[in-house]
Design goal:
Layout (H helix, E strand, L loop, with lengths): L8 E6 L15 H18 L3 E4 L12 H11 L4 E4 L2 E2 L5 H14 L4 E6 L6 H4 L7 H17 L2 E4 L7 E5 L11 E5 L3 H10 L2 E5 L9 H13 L9 E9 L3 H22 L8 H7 L7 E3 L1 H15 L3 E5 L7 H23 L2
Parallel strand pairs: 1-2, 1-12, 2-3, 3-5, 4-5, 5-8, 8-9, 9-10, 10-11, 10-12
Antiparallel strand pairs: 6-7
Helix pairs in contact: 1-2, 1-11, 2-3, 3-5, 6-7, 10-11
């Protein structure tokens, strides 16, 4: 089992996308997808990985609009893996409901719950819950401020612009953990990095491609903003999230992953109104050794994680393995390799 003394956490996350398998043309149901996600979490827990994350999307081509509910089911099927949202779309969630859901998850899981809040890649939750995209930034800022107060106090008095004010409101239940951990997901804007630092919460960088060093200024801004706001340096935790695929050799990994990865970007781009398809040459460039796409042999993936560790000094890495309509056996293999052949080396190297 996981004996993680280095403090570097390795895990996986899913956005629960439902896409056709490009090799068979078959698309699984939301019910099957949900079952596979719970199975993946069990495998990750048994293999000794540290964290399992579930995303939030409000679309028919994704199976998870309620991370807390899915994670509650996972809590019952696992023993020690930490459970987080990746991400909760905080701009359009009521912070009280979000906190209470994850505090309940914390009770169910005996203290394993976390919230990773972000602004989301899509905007359909805005009209769905009666919010305006004109208030995109202000909503996130205000909801974050309230969420952090809820983690600190059993009774809260608060007022803002977007939800009814609270007067000595009881916030129940209280979690098992003294304080429910909160992170902010950051995609690449300096403002988001500074905000995460100012709030003194963890910063999870979504690094989906390109050279990782372009994210170094964000990490510096985050730490600087955190220290200037009076937060202890050790409380400013950085995580990296990214797409990953593992096989015995890097060539095999690229050959196996390309059909699924180009398929994934084809339907994600289509959802965003763009009709582009990734060529083999573009994929080869994205997967080259000095970029952030974690595709390759275990050794190649270890090198990429350690290269980023040199840059960022981060304490957590989460891999998204199950994208593009892959059969579950591919995902299961990736979990096994990540846990058995990547995690031990990363933990050893980062504890030096």
């Amino acid at each position: 089992m996981n004996d993680n003394k280095s403090g570097f956490e390795i895990g996986i996350y899913t956005l629960a996308d439902i896409g056709p398998d490009p090799l068979t043309g078959k698309t699984i149901s939301a019910k099957e997808r949900t079952k596979e996600i719970i199975e993946a979490a069990k495998l990750a827990d048994e293999a000794g990985l540290d964290v399992f994350g579930v995303g939030e999307h409000h679309r028919l081509d994704y199976a998870s609009s309620s991370p807390a509910v899915l994670l509650a089911a996972i809590a019952q099927a696992t023993k020690q893996i930490r459970l987080t949202s990746t991400t909760s779309v905080l701009s359009t969630l009521d912070p009280v409901r979000l906190f209470e859901d994850f505090a309940t998850l914390d009770l169910l899981s005996d203290g394993r719950a976390e919230i990773l809040a972000g602004r989301g890649a899509f905007i359909e939750s805005f009209p769905l819950f009666g919010y305006s995209t004109n208030d995109y930034d202000e909503l996130f800022e205000e909801h974050m401020e309230l969420l952090l107060q809820l983690t600190e106090h059993e009774r809260v008095t608060w007022s803002g612009n977007f939800r009814p004010s609270l007067t000595n409101a009881q916030i129940a239940p209280r979690p098992v953990q003294e304080k429910l951990p909160v992170w902010i997901g950051v995609g690449g804007t300096p403002e988001s990095a500074v905000r995460a630092g100012r709030f003194g919460v963890g910063m999870a960088l979504a690094i989906l491609g390109g050279p990782p060093r372009r994210f170094k200024p964000l990490v510096d801004l985050y730490r600087q903003a955190g220290i200037e706001a009076g937060h202890a340096p050790q409380s400013l935790k950085v995580g990296v999230t990214g797409h990953a695929y593992l096989a015995e050799t890097t060539q095999q990994a690229k050959d196996e992953f390309y059909p699924y990865y180009s398929n994934y970007w084809e339907y994600v781009n289509r959802q965003r109104g763009m009709g582009t398809r990734m060529s083999k040459a573009e994929f080869e460039h994205m997967a080259s050794p000095d970029t952030a796409l974690f595709v390759g042999s275990p050794q190649q993936v270890v090198e990429k994680i350690l290269q980023q560790y040199e840059l960022f000094g981060h304490r957590r890495f989460l891999a998204q393995l199950d994208i593009g309509g892959q059969p579950f056996k591919n995902v299961a293999k990736g979990i096994e390799m990540l846990a058995a052949e990547v995690a031990p080396i990363i933990r050893r190297e980062t504890s030096k």
